[in-house]
Specification:
Blueprint lengths: L1 E7 L3 H12 L4 E4 L17 E4 L1 H9 L3 H7 L2 E3 L1 E5 L7 E4 L9 E5 H11 L5 E2 L4 E7 L2 E6 L4 E9 L6 H5 L4 E17 L6 E7 L2 E7 L5 E8 H9 L2 H11 L7 E4 L3 E10 L3 E2 L2 E3 L5 E2 L7 H21 L7 H28 L7 H5 L3 H6 L1 H12 L2
Parallel strand pairs: 1-2, 1-11, 2-8, 5-13, 11-19
Antiparallel strand pairs: 3-7, 4-7, 5-6, 9-10, 10-11, 12-15, 12-16, 12-17, 13-14, 14-15, 17-20, 18-19
Bound molecules: flavin-adenine dinucleotide.
Length: about 375
């Protein structure tokens, strides 16, 4: 089958890309290694939630899926508080200061993917599809599936996540390091209300966030070194709730209940190139960041908006929309911005780790370092207000 574009990976970023490019008039097919996301079910609260910035909301709105998500369940947050010791000394960012109604929204991963996939039904979609190889000849790509089927396209959009097979097949190298940390994710009930606020404490062992959920609970992301994460995951619920409340300095009172917990290994990764002949990388396939800044999916959605705009512009101007020259425009728009986010996130992470070199040497450690670093503070404020 011959298409304009084959998108590989139907996660939040790939699904948004497939829909955005389809809406722009390209003939798009989607290949996903797993199954289609299950229909969203209000009684299942997905443990993976994302803090979405206004630009991501705008993209989802343009794709015609935002109202459906709001009708299902999203949680706007209006304030963000960041502290190291003593929540009363927290840096505070509020929507009101930025003349907005909210700073962002907490949205479940499963709600994003299932809503996007609902709108993708008109497209050819290949699920449970293993890719065997990819060939690039004369400006066309051939994607060979393990079951013998072959898809042809002028452009392959690789959105197959941080361990991207497509990136490997294209021979694109990466810069990456493991944080030797895991993010422990769970939803918890606290004795005090979250007040529509995203709370983040920087502990010496890693950041701890409480994100407000629509049902009054908080979604926690607790990043800790591997050994500590193992110990926290092994605790029974009561002991875990107690450790969590103490780690948060009881900012939301006691932690009364927790769901099951999962631990996600954390790494930083950046692809040296975002393109190869006939292929372009978007989302986590191009860049993976520490979740302390809640930026991964937001960066991916920004890639989607930039890629669609670039291809449409080239097509309207009568230029070859899949040429290396066109794709270089997309790279120019996104690479510097993504790298800046990667660097700032990594710097922020190191600023609070007494055992790590980096900002500590230059600026000191902790909130003092954050306060003294104008770019970091401006970035945090910007991220809170309009990222
Ligand atoms: C603990 C934690 C908290 C986070 N919080 C936030 C947050 O608050 N805000 C935010 O913006 N981001 C957040 N992120 C980051 C966010 O999860 C990622 O940036 C986002 O999932 C990237 O989406 P993606 O579609 O690019 O990749 P993925 O979500 O990894 O999706 C990749 C898709 O490709 C498919 N696939 C993989 N290989 C193949 C293949 N060979 N062929 C076909 N299909 C394939 C996979 O099955 C999957 O469906 C967080 C991450 C973590 C770990």
């Amino acid at each position: 089958m011959r298409h304009d574009i084959v998108v590989v990976g139907g996660g939040p970023v790939g699904a948004a890309a497939a829909l955005s490019l389809h809406d722009a008039g390209f003939d798009v097919a989607l290949v996903e290694r797993g199954a289609a996301p299950p229909r969203w079910n209000a009684s299942d609260y997905d443990l993976r939630v994302y803090a979405l910035a206004p630009a991501s909301q705008q993209l989802l709105d343009e794709l015609g899926v935002w109202d459906t998500m709001v009708a299902a369940r999203v949680s706007p947050y209006t304030r963000m508080r960041v502290w190291e010791r003593g929540p009363e000394s927290a840096l505070q960012f509020s929507a009101a200061d930025a003349f907005r109604s909210q700073l962002g929204w907490i949205v479940e991963h499963g709600l994003i993917t299932s809503t996007l996939w609902q709108r993708l039904q008109a497209l050819p979609i290949f699920t449970q599809a293993e890719i065997e190889s990819v060939q690039f000849d004369d400006g066309a790509a051939g994607v060979n599936l393990r079951d013998g089927r072959r898809l042809e396209a002028r452009l392959v959009v690789a959105a197959d996540g941080a361990d991207s097979q497509m990136r490997r097949l294209a021979g694109i190298e990466t810069l990456s390091w493991r944080y030797d940390q895991r993010a422990i994710v769970a939803h918890v009930q606290t004795s005090q209300p979250h007040r529509d606020t995203a709370w983040q404490r920087f502990l010496k062992t890693g950041p701890l966030a409480f994100l407000p959920l629509a049902d009054g609970r908080a979604s926690i992301v607790w990043s800790a070194d591997d050994a500590q994460a193992d110990a926290l995951l092994a605790l029974d619920d009561a002991a875990f709730c107690d450790r969590l409340a103490r780690a948060s300095e009881f900012v939301l009172g006691d932690v009364l209940q927790t769901t099951a917990r999962i631990g996600v290994p954390l790494k930083l990764m950046h692809a040296r190139d975002y393109t190869a002949p006939g292929m372009v990388l978007i989302g986590d396939a191009a860049h993976a960041v520490h979740p302390l800044a809640g930026q991964g999916a937001n960066l991916g959605f920004a890639d989607v908006a930039a890629l669609t705009a670039t291809l449409v512009q080239a097509r309207s101007a009568g230029r070859d929309w899949s040429s290396p020259r066109t794709l270089a425009r997309y790279v120019r728009q996104r690479k510097a911005h993504n790298l800046e986010m990667l660097a700032l996130t990594d710097t922020l992470y190191r600023a609070f780790r007494p055992s790590l070199p980096g900002l500590r040497g230059a600026l000191g450690f902790g909130m003092g370092a954050l306060n003294r670093s104008a770019p970091l503070k401006a970035w945090l404020a910007g991220r809170a207000a309009k990222a």
